[in-house]
Every structure is written in C-alpha cells, then in structure tokens.
Amino acid sequence: MVKRVALTAIATATFTLSLQAERISGAGASFPAPLYYDWAYDYHKATGKEVNYQSIGSGGGIKQVGSRIVDFGASDKPLKPKKLDKKRLYQFPAVIGSIVVVYNIPGIGDAELRLENKDIADIFMGKIRYWDDKAIAQDNPHLKLPHEKITVIHRSDGSGTTFNFSYFLSNVSEDWRNEIGVGKALSWPTGIGAKGNEGISNLLKQTPYSIGYVEYAYKKRNSFSAATIQTKNGKWVKPAEENFIAAAKYASWDPNKHFYQILALQPGDNSYPIVAATFILLPREKNETNKKVTAFFDWAFKNGDESAQRLGYIPLPQSTKDMIRAYWKKHNIDPSN
Amino acid sequence: MRGRKAINALVLTLSTVSAVIGLIFLFWILWTLASKGFDAISSKIFIYDTAPPGREESGLRNAIVGQLILVGVASGIGIPLGILAGTYLSEYGKNSKFANFIRDISDIMMSAPSIVIGAFVYAVLVAPVGHFNGWAGSAALAIMMIPIVLRTTDDMLNLVPTQLREAAYALGAPKYKVILQIVYRGAKAGIITGVLLSIARIAGETAPLLFTSFNNNFFTTDLNEAMPSLTVTMFNFATSPYEDWIDLGWAAAFILGSFVLGVNIIGRAIVKKKKG
C-alpha cells in the first residue's frame, strides 16, 4: 500500500514536472566544458531553460551525437564535410581556446621555461628524458634545470585536445609524424595517462617534474606554469592571451565546408602555434531540438563573451558569429525561425 | 607440545595483525570521510544545485534527490522480483535442475562487473530510446540488486524448518498460506537484512550509472531525462581541478558513506535482535 502511494506520487511528480522546463542535453569535449557549464548556468537563470552539458571527451561526444543519444555533441576535432554528410551532422565553432604545455618544476615559474617545438615532440616521445638535457638547457641558459627525470602526462581518453596537440607536433617534428602521428587517442611511447583536461591538471599538481598539455582555461584556473614555445617561423612566443588572439585572427572560416578548419601554426610573429576552435555538432534531421540548441548558442554569442574571457577562452569575432547565424538560417535551424 | 604451542602463537599473532590492519583501513577511511566531509557539509548543500566552479550558490540538492529516486525506483523493481524469485527457488523449485540453474546464474550475475551491466542497459534502454534516462539507471541498479535479494531470500527461507511447514499443512493450510504466514514470518529478519544490504550495495555504484542515467547539472525528478546522482557527481567533482568542487565531492562522499554505513548497521542490528 505504502509502495503504491509512493509510486503514484513519483509518477504524478514526474508528469507535472516534465511539462515545465525546456531541456536539451549535450556531451563531449572537456576542453570547453567549464565555459559551457558557465553559459548553461547563466542561460538557465536568464531564460529558465536547461542545457545539460556533460564532459565525456570529444570522442564520446561525436559517438553519442552520432547515435542520437544527446541533442548536441561537442568536439575539439572538427569533422570533415564528408564525414559530416555520412553521419548526417551540422557543425559550427563555438569558441576558440589554446593548448599550453604545462610543467611542474619547483622553482621555475610561468613562461620562464623555453621549449623548442621539436623538443616538445622529443619530450613527449621519451627521447629527451631529463630536465637538464642539452636540448632544453641550451635554450634556457639563465635557468638552473634540475637533473630529474621528466614525467610525461598525457590523455588516456579520446580527446580533441590530443588531436590538436598531436597535429601541431606532427607539423613540427618529422619523427613524431612518422612514429606517432595525429589522432584523438595515440599509442604513447612514454608517460602516464589521465582522463580529461581535469585528470591531467590533477596529476600534474601532484607530480613534481612532470609535463603535460591542457587547454589554457585549465592552466589559468590552476595557475600552472606553461612553457614559452615557438611560432610557425621559430620566434619565441609566450603562452599569453594576446598571442592567442593574434593567431585566431588568421582563421578563415568557410560555412560551405561546415567551418572545417584546424587553426594550429598560423602565420605571424606573435601567433601562438597551438590554438584550436571547439565545435558543436547537431543531428541534421532534428530541426526542432536544433533550434533550441542554436537559441542557446545565439544567447551565448550575445551574452557570453565576458565569461569566455574570464575563463581563458577567446570569443569568436563578430564576423564569425554572423557567419554562423547565416549558416543556421541557410539550414533552417535558426532559433528565431 | 612446545612446537604446537609456538605454531599456535604464531598463527594467532598473524591473524590478529591481519584483522587489525583491516580495521585500521576501515577506520582510516571513515575518519578521512568524516573529517574532510564534515567540513564541507553545510546547509547550502541541500538548498542549491550543482553549479559551475566558483559560484556562491552551489550545492548537491539535485544529486541527492536524483540518487534517492534512482535507488528508490531500483528497489521498487528489484526487491519484489528478488523476493518472489527467491521464494520460487526455496518453496517450488527446491533442488530441481532448473532451480539450481537459476541459483548458478544468479551467483554469476552477482559477480558480474557492474560496468558490464551498465553497457548492457545502455544497449537495451538508452540506445533504442534515444537519450540517457533515469529509468535506465534504475534498471541497471535493479539488475544488480535482484541476484542479491534472490539468494538471501532463498537461503533464509531454507533455514525455516520443514517440520514447521508440515505442521501447517497438517492443519489444512493451503500452500500460499503456509508461505505467507509461516515461512515468511520465520524468515522475516533475514529477508529484511538481505534487502537492506542489497540497497547498501547498489547505493554506492557509479559504473552502471555512467552511461545510463548519465548526469544532469540541473534538478529533475523526471525519470525520462538524464538524472544526476551522488556517485557520478562525486566522481566528476573529486577528479576536477576546482577547490570548491573537490569540497563538494567530499561532502557527497560523506553523505553517501553515512547512508551506506547506516543501512548496514540497521541490517546487522536486525539480525542481532533476532538472535538475542
């Protein structure tokens, strides 16, 4: 009897509450996750609509939106137009971030350590094994590098951050290109794996003399030290916001290719070499929910730039936002429609 | 003689040391949970939902309510099914081939990795439906629960002496009456304990929920939607790099730990009372 009453109560509550809120769900990249949480929180406050975003990695995001389990997916790795056609997905960028090489060496501060791009590849391949290796020391004559083993920390899950990082390494190191290549998940020759940008951040904090790669927002939040690396032409460039913006300026988006573009290694003297846009994926046949998703991003494009900057992301320029709105209109998933 | 005594002393010491080591870890865990969790507990936790890092109005309300609903619904499905199946085994199936087959299967199910159950439920209740939902999470938990309840019910009913049943039959009671009024009554304490332990067992599970009920940053009581749970929230928060989230993770661990410990203690107390 008691059970029946309880069940009826639950059923009634379920029914009444399900009529109230408008809900959409998304999953994927951990790289923009702190920002999407933040946007969703403020969007809920402003409109009462709920956007439930869960960080499960870009690989998971592509898979779950591909099998239509979530309303939108998020990936740091843009899908090629052909693949989008095959999976029946739309794609547009949401925000730009950058990937920084972070280290935990007691006594060496932020941006003090200089790493040549090809040396980064050698460290992550296990070819440079000690912090006082000649290759590192010659670029850092003013630093006292410890004779300690380098602990490499990399992602263990399918990751868009790994994709963008390995894309960069493949373009600066022939060895990397031949032996390891580009991908969301790699067979790492050395180091320990961690899940998500969160996992790398945690492990890096706990492990002295370690090195890893995270989205800049995670570096900012945790006050990690990040290495000064090189532009496409070999000039030293600090992991600083103005240098990310300098690189992002060179992006040339093409809505006809569903904005497919990899932003690494842009030209220019101040262009930080590992910037990456993060993308939203929408199932093509779901017009109605897509409009709810674009309504959220439309709101975020209008009201979310400040949050993005506070958290260490680079908002899309106005021209790109307009281009994305036109793209929505063209495909009939415009929120006002 | 002397040799035997020496061996006795040695074995006694070794087993005492092992027991003490086990207890040390148990109390270490409890102490860590209590000290870290207690600091993180505040009334805010029960008032506000999970929020992005660094926000003032941040709590665990949605996760606590979600957890209660998930475990409640799982119990609603799992307990009756488990008790009925256990009753069948003990009172009808007895030692038949079929009954023993079910016993073996449920033993295997009991030791099945919970993540495998999660994957199964994803394939059956998430993929065809087209979205993560609370029902799937509850179903996964219920699947874990059924074999536990089934086996304890079976064992407890078997402990009721056959003579008692025969006496009831001799008085002319039909079988269903014998089961309901004689056998159940005799095994009540044991069954309740089994049920409580099975609730404690599933309340702390994360793996079967990861891709069934998923998680939700918002408050919901709608089982057709992705549903937050303390365990998944704890997993996400404890592995996050944000101080305030890590604190909330400890608070979640404390709440969950207290719940599981409480249920376990109640279970033991019932057994003790029955015996004493």
Structural class of chain A: alpha/beta
Low-confidence stretches of chain A: 14-19
Task: Catalogue the unreliable spans of chain B.
Answer: none
What is the name of the CATH superfamily of the largest domain in chain B?
MetI-like
- Count of helical regions of chain A: 14
**Overall pLDDT level of chain B:** 92
Order of helices and strands of chain B: HHHHHHHHHHH
CATH topology (fold) name of the largest domain in chain B: MetI-like fold
The Cα radius of gyration of chain B reads: 23 Å
Number of strands of chain A: 11
Number of strands of chain B: 0
Q: What would you note in describing this structure?
A:
The complex is a heterodimer of chains A (337) and B (276). Chain A is α/β, with parallel strands linked by helices. Chain A folds into two domains: 2-96 and 251-261 and 276-330, D-Maltodextrin-Binding Protein, domain 2, CATH 3.40.190; 99-248, Periplasmic binding protein-like II (D-Maltodextrin-Binding Protein, domain 2, 3-Layer(aba) Sandwich), CATH 3.40.190. Chain A contains 14 helices and eleven strands. In chain A, strands 1, 2, 3, 4, 5, 6, 7, 8 and 11 form a nine-stranded mixed β-sheet that branches. In chain A, helix 2 (33-47) links the parallel strand 1 (23-28) and strand 2 (50-55). The longest helix of chain A has 17 residues, at 2-18. In chain A, 49% of the residues are buried. By secondary structure, chain B is mainly alpha-helical. Chain B has two domains: 2-40; 46-275, MetI-like (MetI-like fold, Orthogonal Bundle), CATH 1.10.3720. Helix content of chain B is 78%, strand content 0%. Chain B has eleven helices and no strands. Chain B is globular. The model of chain B has no long low-confidence stretch (mean pLDDT 92).
